[in-house]
Amino acid sequence: MAEPAVMLDGISKQYGSFLAADNISITVPKGELFGFLGPNGAGKTTTIKMMTGLLEPTDGTIEIGGVDMWKHPLQAKKKIAYVPDHPTLYEKLTGWEYVRFIASVFGIPARQAEEKAVRLFDLFSLGSRADELIEGYSHGMKQKMALTGALLHDPDVIFLDEPTVGLDPKSAKTLKDLLRQLCDDGTTVFVSTHILEIAQEMCDRIGIIRDGKIAALGTMEELRGESSASLEDIFLELTGDEEQQELIRELAGGRSDAP
Amino acid sequence: MIRTLLGVQARMLKHTMETNKTGTNVSHAIIGFVVILFLLFALNIVTSLPTAYDTELVELLFSYVFMMVLGLILLMGVPQVFKHLYASRDLTFLFTLPIKVSHIFWVKYIQSFLNIPAALFIVTFLPGLAYGLHAGVHGFFYPALLVVTLAIPALGVAAAYFINMGLVHIIPAKRANELMTVMSAVSGVLVYGMFQLPNLLTEPGPGSETALPTGLLPEMPAWLPMSWGASALTSAMAGDVSFLLPTVGLAVAAAGLSFAASALVEKGFRSGWIQLNEGKNKKKKAGEKGRRFKVGSPVAEIGWKEWRYMKRDIREWLIFMPFVFLFIFMGFGYTAGSSSVAAFRELDPVLSWTAVQAAALFIYAFFNGSLSASFVAREAGSTWMLHVLPLTGVQIACGKLWMSWLIPFLPVSVLQMTAGILLGWPVSFFLLGLVLSALISPALSALGIWTGAIGGKYNPSNPQNRLQFAPSLLMLVLSYVYVLLTLIPVLLVVVPAESAGLFEKVAGGGIIGGSASAAASLLQLKLTNSALVTAGSILVFLFLTIGTCVAFLYLAGRRIEQGIQVSMPDSKE
Ligand SMILES: Nc1ncnc2c1ncn2[C@@H]1O[C@H](COP(=O)(O)OP(=O)(O)O)[C@@H](O)[C@H]1O
Ligand SMILES: [Mg+2]
């Protein structure tokens, strides 16, 4: 069998005495759209940062297409792209200059980079703004610009951290379709989210993380079929449970009673 | 409400200190230590002054001390106040709460005062007190001292607030982001003008050095607040009741100006803040449309990226402020004493060349490091990009190096050339000067890159200050040590061997004597074996310059790969 696109083996991350990621092992085959689902503070961002070479794991190994991220970072990084949850791009560059910067770093020929960028700008409706400084973009536009930069060099694996958060419904839809298309063409996508529906409707396989541990791993059907209590809890946490609904009603009611 | 807000601020400060990296706390401790040292030094001087004083001289001294206090407050306070007024991150939040704007203002005002102004109060009040006790002056002096040393900084802070709130309205909204720069520039010019004022008003006569005190330090016009304070203190020392008038006048002026500032608040503070934040969202076109899409090498492209960053944010230009002041001073010097420039022209080209080289190296040593360091610290929020991209640390360091080196090198070289033409150097001197600069300066920039990687700091509202205190001190010291070291082989080549005797006379123990004797023996060697010493010196020089540059690039690269962390202090600092 071919090398898995992403292989995490016993990854842990310790912040002082706090264990933000605890012995995480995940294998993602090539061309899969993998969803990393968990409530806020579960350790999604921490794990993704370790996979992209931003945060050194306390323990464990990470391989991208068979290359160890922390032993051969340069080779591994050539294969990946990363779109963080709050992309701070080079704000004083224009969209085009940013693309040019990324193209230069990855050594993409000018013609090829330009064509690709034009297509991506069109797709994300960024074309008319690509000559403006990035600092003037909205959060969603910055995210789309980061996506453009990420897709420019045809990465083997794309990591996206909560990509739909700043996007309007149309862009979110475009993104979902795009990711699906990319996976069908052989790119591997690793996407984190705290929204159950998103994971459900677009991912091939889902890893559920909570308190730094992998609670469950499999396709949505497999997960639904599995009836463990802890998994139930997580789904409730992700959807909002009965008790919470009650609380919300109470709070709303309390306000109208007030003088 | 004011107390609640202050309480919150105090608690935040406490937590900031608790969670600070030890390095930051250490550098704060160093600053505190320096202040205490200065205080002890001042106390020492004051208590060793003769007890019998010349009233005129003391008055002059006081007025100059107060001028320095006001100058410092304006210079550092105007940008600081700007931060407190308009750049604090908590304002967005505070404005949404039901708090009176004037309360927010007073909290900010107290915060501004409890900064440099409070420190200046301490370093003027305590030595003043010590002097009073030491000289055994009249009891009136002490209350007057307290009022005056409090009122002068308060006046400075109030003035800083006025300047800020005024300028916020004059400057068009779309330029508001660059306001900070304008603030610093304005305060610099103001202070410079203030110090020049007495100079311009009084022309020192010939042989003025003996004619103390008026010759050395021109007298100050009596209507300036500094003069009020000074005359209040001198009258009080003598037990003259007339001290009351200027003392009370000063206190009233300080209080009045402060309240006037608070009255302007609703208009200047809130609306100015709104204007400022709207200005931010103005679209900016950077006209590169229609140009062909090009792709360069990563190293070149990183350099260009830095260049665009500098070009597009006036705030970044602040780093050139020292240059501007240098030119102003030089311009003043030129117009003031054209005779001395003429004398300079008559100089031997060797001497003038040496002087110009020394000046250029001084500028490089002073400037290159901090510029390059700011190129690293600028990454701040975007460091993640450099880590995710397939770039080696050395590539990143090189990319930042070439541009940060070129930016000072071009103007300084042009200046050098201009000086050379004016001073009539032979062609070989031009070339030699360029080669020397080109070889010596890159290592200084590399040093800056490394320093930025170990101790970068980024505060979007205060971009010229991009290094933590301790690393910046280290960088400055290393820069000068390096330049001095490289000069040894240069001097060995340039200084004629015959002057060995000259050094022998100074030779002896201690650092100076020791180096003189070392120089003497090297020159002796040169006398007997000129070619060897010259060749050896050139080799050592090349090794030093290129070696240092490569070494720091490598270190910086390593550091960048390990992950640089640019500390981003809250805009409160
Ligand atoms: N630099 C840090 N220092 C200490 N704790 C951290 C740090 N970064 C994240 N954490 C903690 O790690 C946990 C996981 O955070 P994160 O990975 O950002 O969660 P997620 O992205 O799933 O919302 C959280 O409890 C968070 O408080
Ligand atoms: Mg997260």
UniProtKB/TrEMBL annotation, chain A:
Coiled coil: none
Entry-linked InterPro entries: AAA+_ATPase, ABC_transporter-like_ATP-bd, ABC_Transporter_VariousFunc, P-loop_NTPase
Keyword ATP-binding assigned: yes
Record PROSITE patterns: ABC_TRANSPORTER_2
SMART domains: AAA
Domain called ABC transporter: residue spans: 6-236
Entry keyword set: ATP-binding, Nucleotide-binding, Transport
Organism superkingdom: Bacteria
GO MF annotation: an example: ATP binding
PANTHER family linked to this entry: ABC TRANSPORTER ATP-BINDING PROTEIN ALBC-RELATED (PTHR42939:SF1)
Protein name, as recorded: ABC-2 type transport system ATP-binding protein
Species of origin: Salibacterium halotolerans
TrEMBL record, chain B:
Pfam families, A to Z: ABC_tran_2 (PF16949)
Transmembrane intervals: 26-46, 58-79, 114-134, 140-164, 176-195, 243-265, 317-336, 356-377, 384-407, 427-452, 473-495, 531-555
Coiled-coil portions: none
Keyword Transcription regulation: no
Alphabetical keyword list: Membrane, Transmembrane, Transmembrane helix
Keyword Translocase: no
Entry protein name: ABC-2 type transport system permease protein
